[in-house]
Design brief:
The complex is a heterodimer of chains A (206) and B (247).
Chain A (H helix, E strand, L loop, with lengths): L6 E11 L7 E11 L4 E5 L6 H9 L6 E6 L2 E2 L12 E4 L27 E5 L10 H13 L3 E6 L4 H10 L2 E6 L2 E5 L2 H6 L1 H7 L6
Parallel strand pairs in A: 3-8, 3-9, 6-7, 7-8
Antiparallel strand pairs in A: 1-2, 1-4, 4-5, 9-10
Chain B lengths: L1 E12 L2 E12 L3 E5 L6 H8 L7 E6 L2 E2 L5 H6 L2 E3 L12 H8 L1 H4 L5 H7 L1 H13 L15 H14 L4 E5 L7 H14 L4 E6 L2 H5 L4 E6 L2 E6 L1 H5 L2 H5 L7
Helix pairs in contact in B: 3-6, 3-7, 6-7, 7-8
């Protein structure tokens, strides 16, 4: 493996426009960040903030409007469609089945340089306190990290224990809101922010 | 050597991860459990193991022979039987007849196999043995549709046993059963344990913890934990949730 960061989001921008004729942006997401080493990153943000769009761009199933998503030195949009999950793998929310946005035939693209996924994207995993599986899920995140993978856990917390989970396992946080992605180096820093407190509402006090 | 093995199975529906690098090994004569929350990929995993889906990558081995992608009926003939989460019985037939039609010897006969089964003492004896192991000896003449739910479950297991399998897969056998039914089913499985290799998919942790020799926890289409019931129970969250009775 090269010394390239596990994941680099190089001036990535995604713009959804209102329509073919009305080119006014309906939604825009911008991020410019690199993740050098294995870690567990928590992502929070309101519905419609762009969390899933961000995951899709990292996994290569959705192409950025500008900029590049680079996993271990490979531009995701240049990797063969069916091999992209050997670099970054997106565990969808249960109701979502989406397709790759394809611009070129697969054989013109390059093979993935990794045999297994290096970036794992968990999109709103269901943590059910009743069934006892949470412990296995958290241990699994830690195992992936120990194996040198980068793990993202995206949650839209609705109960205090979900915040406890994020606080327990995440080493770093991203707050996605209004198309902006704000990094926070620890949980205390995250929940101290006024916009995060507003977002969490009653949960912020816990 | 494991009787049945899955090596690095991968399955995708579109860009959706269904199975990711699943490896499993079921030792002969043991009871293995596959456990995981709803939608984790447990049944899909069974469907790949029993030939209903072909994996995108990876191999399935029975006694060391590669059976990946073979059709389900062929895998069944090699000695792999399964039950389904939704029961599949001949409702209008009697309990005896449901078992009789599943026997390989009956199926080889062609014309009026059930009539012949009644006439053939060897076959009748076979059916009785199976009804005995499934705990249905007293119900041979009841129509399947008249059975209470738990007994239907047992009959379905009996139908699977009629194929004389080396390996029996049970898909969520406790589904729809109350605590009495679960206890009776656990007794039945305990009786079968050791006579053949059994693999059970279950959502109900307590049921598997009381029966299995080894358990694999599947979630997000992959094995996220593995161990004996004692090892898995040591996880603090399992204790905290008190096996599903917290809150």
């Amino acid at each position: 493996m090269t010394s390239a960061p596990l994941l680099a989001l190089e001036r990535v921008s995604k713009v959804y426009r209102r329509g073919v004729f009305d080119r006014a942006p309906a939604f825009q997401l911008d991020i410019d960040r690199a993740f050098e080493k294995p870690e567990i990153v928590g992502i929070m943000g309101p519905n419609g903030a762009g969390k899933t769009t961000l995951f899709e761009m990292i996994a290569g199933s959705n192409a950025p409007s500008a900029g590049r998503v680079v996993v271990a030195g490979q531009d995701m949009q240049r990797v063969r469609y069916r091999q992209r999950d050997r670099l970054a793998i997106h565990y969808h929310q249960s109701y979502q089945v989406r397709r790759f946005s394809k611009s070129r035939p697969s054989f013109l693209l390059e093979p993935a340089g990794s045999a297994y996924p290096l970036v794992h994207l968990f999109d709103e995993p269901q943590f059910n306190t009743q069934d006892g599986y949470i412990g296995f899920m958290l241990d699994f995140f830690r195992k992936l990290r120990a194996e040198g993978r980068l793990v993202f856990v995206c949650l839209h917390p609705t109960a205090p224990y979900q915040l406890d989970i994020l606080r327990e396992i995440c080493e770093r946080f991203l707050f996605v809101s209004g198309g902006r992605v704000c990094p926070h180096d620890d949980y205390a820093g995250l929940v101290a922010q006024a916009d995060v407190r507003t977002y969490l509402g009653a949960l912020a006090g816990s | 050597m494991a009787l049945f093995e899955a090596r690095e199975l991968h399955l995708r529906f579109g860009d959706r991860v269904v199975l990711e690098n699943v490896s499993l090994a079921f030792k002969a004569g043991k009871l293995s459990g596959i456990m995981g929350p709803n939608g984790a990929g447990k049944t899909t995993c069974f469907n790949v193991l029993t030939g209903r889906y072909k994996p995108n990558r990876g191999r399935v081995l029975l006694e060391g022979h590669d059976i990946t992608g073979r059709p389900p009926q062929e895998i069944a003939r090699l000695g792999v039987a399964r039950s389904f989460q939704l029961m599949t019985l001949f409702d209008e037939f009697s309990v005896f007849e449901n078992i009789a039609v599943a026997l390989p010897a009956t199926r080889a006969r062609g014309y009026d196999p059930i009539g012949q089964a009644y006439a053939d003492p060897a076959l009748t004896w076979d059916v009785q043995q199976i009804l005995e192991s499934a705990g249905l000896a007293g119900r041979a003449d009841d129509p399947a549709k008249a059975l209470p739910y738990g007994a239907r479950r047992a009959l379905e297991i009996g139908v699977a046993l009629a194929c004389k399998p080396k390996l029996l897969f049970l898909d969520e056998p406790t589904a729809g059963l109350g605590s009495d039914g679960r206890a009776r089913l656990a007794d039945l499985v305990r009786k079968l344990k050791g006579t053949l290799t059994i693999v059970i998919i279950e959502h109900d942790m307590e049921f598997l913890f009381s029966l299995a020799d080894e358990i694999s926890v599947i979630h997000w289409g992959q094995v996220i934990a593995r161990g004996t019931p004692a090892e898995l129970k040591a996880n603090p969250w399992v204790g905290a949730s008190n096996l599903g009775r917290l809150n």
